[in-house]
Amino acid sequence: MEAWFITLVSFCVCFLIRAIFSLHSSPTKASGKAIITTPPGPSHISIITRLLWLRKSFTELEPTLRTFHAKYGPIITLRIGASPAIFIADGALAHRALVHNGSLFSDRPEAPATAAILSSNRRNISSASYGATWRTLRRNLASEMLHHSRVRSFSGIRKCVLNSLLTRLKSASESIHSVRVIDHLRHAMFCLLVFMCFGERLDEGKVRDIARVERQLLLRLGSFNILNFWPSVTRVLYRKKWLEMLRLRKEQEDVLLPLIRARKQKQKQAKESGLNDDHDDVVSYVDTLLDLQLPEEKRELNEGELVTLCNEFLNAGTDTTSTALQWIMANLVKYPHVQERVVEEIKQVVGEKKEREVKEEELHKLGYLKAVVLEGLRRHPPGHFVLPHAVTEDVVLKDYLVPKNGTVNFMVAEMGLDPKVWEDPLAFKPERFLNDEGFDITGTKEIKMMPFGAGRRICPGYNLALLHLEYFVANLVLNFEWKVPQGGDVDLSEKKEFTVVMKNALQTFRIGQNGPYRVRNGPFRTPKSRTKTTPRTTHSEIRTARSGTHPERPVLPSERPVLPPERPVLLSRTARSPSGTARSPSFL
Ligand code: HEM
Ligand SMILES: *[C@@H]1O[C@H](CO)[C@@H](O)[C@H](O)[C@H]1NC(C)=O
Ligand SMILES: *[C@@H]1O[C@H](CO)[C@@H](O)[C@H](O)[C@H]1NC(C)=O
Ligand SMILES: *[C@@H]1O[C@H](CO)[C@@H](O)[C@H](O)[C@H]1NC(C)=O
């Protein structure tokens, strides 16, 4: 099989070279006036490139797509294999498609062969075709789980998860090993969603178990695409991959099914004993799913479908949110004046309390914080594309035909960086959102950016995601001063995983590890350490003792209790200091 594969790859390379040549030598002619054609694009891409395409994701093809857009305009067609793929890179056009003609642009393309196994035949919200089943599943999620009052019922767990994240970060910053911040952020988000999904706090090991299985599958998903190329053949040729996929799905069922069954059992017992409203119990996503009837088949969900839907719930809100959170924190490290302004705003609005905590109910007063989160989503949307859309019938958009048999996608990252819409688009300037009286992230009136998509398929979790981002950003900067050690920098290069993540993840460093730093001076206190009788060495003291430099503002021990508590420093920079500019090269 190895030799076979090498031959195939060399074939692909040959065809690709040919395709590139033909692309340069024969620019597409303008279409005739009378006939409506699909949007322009490179005249022909060899069928073999479809194979390459299947092996890659949109994001890896983004630079190529960008050059096509520069050449052919904001809406283009790529012919890869049988069905045309249309890409829209312009907010106004996206608005016309997704909002004005939302009823036509809200379908999803046919599911690939692997979906039969991985999603119980498209029984998840994101891949379901636009119809009664999708509507039922989506309405259940939106109105049963993501409704304001339901979301509020989970505020206790958010506080819990936040506290444990702060503790972890604190001990990470004291550890001699540098620790990847993203791992802690992802774990925190995962804990939140696991609780919302199953309604109970699972022990650490169990949560990690689920996370491991979910992540494995997520990261391998792209590589299973090859199985869809020509299913009956590739399934045999790539037998190992096929078996691996089956195994991963099985593992997923093994960890999720016991939790689902336990919930079902609990519900049954509650019904039998007539204790329907057990009021110290939360309603979990599984509970809502167990009550659901599929409208088309008129039956309840089976176990495979429950696993699929829980899996979607856990995945959709974990990687996306933690990726966004890391990007925002990275920018706050890189631009300390932005971080200071967030802290100032919190201190003004929330007041200087003993406890370093921004409560959920206080978030709505923090306009600058909101702007920081929006700017983070504009500059670094976790997904550079939405999920592929399809039209329910042939549609004419901007004088072009969008055929039913094609796919439509939207270039989210491009829209956020469009110089026609955004002034100085590469800069991180939250202020740009302060002028807008309440920026509309859903794009109902106009689309300036769409990190959550827009229209009927818009991410139903956007409110929960924004709440999580605002709550965690506020409390992370209030509890630590995030900064780089001297000589370090934050590298904002991108890397494609399931979402577009930081190539060099943010890491924590112990203060005093690599020489003198200019750190804030002041007692290091957290609610926990304050209760201890023996005062612990403060971070700045470690620094002072080791580096021997004078603190900026000398503090006598006797003065300490009088000073307002300052934030301890969390040194953080990206794994490798970049040698060149900090701009992401793909946007140059
Ligand atoms: C920062 C965090 C998040 C981002 C950036 C994000 C982004 C997106 C995007 C771009 C889409 C595709 C929209 C389209 O195809 O037009 C989507 C769909 C979806 N998201 Fe999110 N999402 C986030 C968090 C969440 C959360 C917390 C949940 C739920 C708990 C969630 C659940 C879903 C679901 C179920 C869909 C499929 C909707 C459908 O096809 O009808 N997402 N999201
Ligand atoms: C897709 O649809 C268009 C317009 O309806 C049609 O011209 C084209 O032949 C179709 N292509 C395939 C591969 O079915
Ligand atoms: C599509 O949008 C145009 C305006 O952009 C509108 O005139 C037309 O009625 C819409 N069609 C449908 C089916 O919504
Ligand atoms: C939904 O199912 C599709 C396959 O039909 C799969 O590719 C996708 O990853 C699933 N979505 C989520 C969020 O789990």
TrEMBL record:
Disordered as annotated region, ranges: 514-588
UniProt keyword Transmembrane, yes or no: yes
A GO cellular component entry from the record: membrane
UniProt-listed PROSITE patterns: CYTOCHROME_P450
Cofactor(s) named in the record: heme
Localisation: Membrane
Record carries keyword Transmembrane: yes
Membrane topology, record value: Single-pass membrane protein
Biased composition (Basic and acidic residues): 538-553
Polar residues bias spans: 574-588
Gene3D superfamilies, per the entry: Cytochrome P450
Record's keyword terms, sorted: Heme, Iron, Membrane, Metal-binding, Monooxygenase, Oxidoreductase, Signal, Transmembrane, Transmembrane helix
Primary location group: membrane
Signal peptide start and end residues: 1-22
GO MF annotation terms: heme binding; iron ion binding; oxidoreductase activity, acting on paired donors, with incorporation or reduction of molecular oxygen, NAD(P)H as one donor, and incorporation of one atom of oxygen
Family: Belongs to the cytochrome P450 family.
PANTHER family with a match to the protein in the record: CYTOCHROME P450 89A2-RELATED, FLAVONOID 3'-MONOOXYGENASE-RELATED
Protein name, per record: Cytochrome P450 89A2
Species per Swiss-Prot/TrEMBL record: Cajanus cajan
